[in-house]
Amino acid sequence: MISNIKILEEKANSLRKDIIQMICVSKSGHPGGSLSSADIVTALYFYEMNIDPKNPKMDGRDRFVLSKGHAAPVLYAALAERGYFSKDTLVTLRQYGSMLQGHPDMKKVPGVEISTGSLGQGLSVANGMALSAKISKKDYRTYVLMGDGELQEGQIWEAAMTAAHYKLDNVCAFVDFNNLQIDGNVDQIMGVEPLDKKWEAFGWNVLKIDGHDMKAILGALASAKECKGQPTIIICETTKGKGVSFMENVCGFHGVAPNEEEAARAISELEHVEKIEN
Questions:
Q1: pLDDT tens per residue across all 278 residues of the chain
Q2: How far is Cα 29 from Cα 101, in angstroms, rounded to an integer?
Q3: For residue 79, which of 10, 84, 88, 246 is within the disulfide window of CB 3.0 to 4.6 Å?
Q4: Is the pTM for the entire model greater than 0.85?
């Protein structure tokens, strides 16, 4: 696994380019939330999780649940980069007959632990996986990524109670807190703040970080492992469309694909970042 911060940052940037390319080709998809969560997903797949692309169902592997399933492009990009399937497959996103549909399909895509798409369900699934590990006396951990708008779903809070009740310290949840959902600003549509105090009240170990600071993400993951008797949630303050100037903080790119001209501009910006960093 990669331990160098700079290399991880470069990997996240590479995932962002893949996200733009695949969504542009498919003319359909969700770039905004995929781009905002790229750093989180990179930290998990290239640093933190105990996984084996050659043996996707390896006993004792860590689990990842993409609760906000519409951000499938970032998961597909990570899985391809890790070697679960060929990167050439990415351009088949959302095409008829492709295994890479608009939301992850556990029956078709190697490395996908659970089919997701109906918002609010992922944390419950993650709890089940973590509880199974406890009962079976296995030490694998379960990670789940939720959107901030998704926290408006009641099932999330039922799952929050469940995880705390059963002391599922092998659950580590992330909130991609970019404050934008499909219809506008989260705080205007149905405010979810104060998130830290709410999760603390539900019995969770709460960490709040910059979701684009790779060092902070890795530090939070380490802290989560050290916490015993409580599940951990890492609230990540992020930017919708991160890395692409004309997509950043623009609600319209929640679920709208860039055209070829926009995609070329986006990739050029991301490549410029790489040149600066190197």
A1: 777 999 999 999 999 999 999 999 999 999 999 999 999 999 999 999 999 999 999 999 999 999 999 999 999 999 999 999 999 999 999 999 999 999 999 999 999 999 999 999 999 999 999 999 999 999 999 999 999 999 999 999 999 999 999 999 999 999 999 999 988 899 999 999 999 999 999 999 999 999 999 999 999 999 999 999 999 999 999 999 999 999 999 998 999 999 999 999 999 999 987 666 66
A2: 10
A3: 84
A4: yes
Domains annotated on the chain, with CATH: 5-277 (3.40.50.970)
Q: Which two tokens stand for residue 141?
A: 């951990």
> Cis ω on the peptide bond leading into residue 73 (within 30° of 0)?
no
112 class by beta-carbon count within 10 Å (0-12 exposed, 13-18 middle, 19+ buried):
buried
Q: Which tokens go with 183?
A: 């219809």
3-state helix, strand, coil in the chain (%, to 5): 50, 10, 40
* Residue 272 DSSP one-character state: H
Cα 3 from Cα 17, distance rounded (Å): 22
User: Which of 234, 219, 222 is CA-nearest to residue 145?
Assistant: 234
Q: How many CB atoms lie within 10 A of CB 118?
A: 12
Strand pairing report for 180-181 and 184-185? antiparallel
Task: Tell me the two tokens of residue 40.
Answer: 């989180």
Kindly give, in sequence order, each residue whose CB lies less than 8 Å from that of residue 266, ignoring residues fewer than 6 positions away: 20, 243, 244, 246, 247, 258
Single-letter code of the amino acid located at 65: V
Nearest-5° angle of CA 151, CA 116, CA 154? Answer: 25
The CA distances from residue 257 to 69, 90, 176, 223, 241, in Å, are: 16, 15, 20, 37, 12
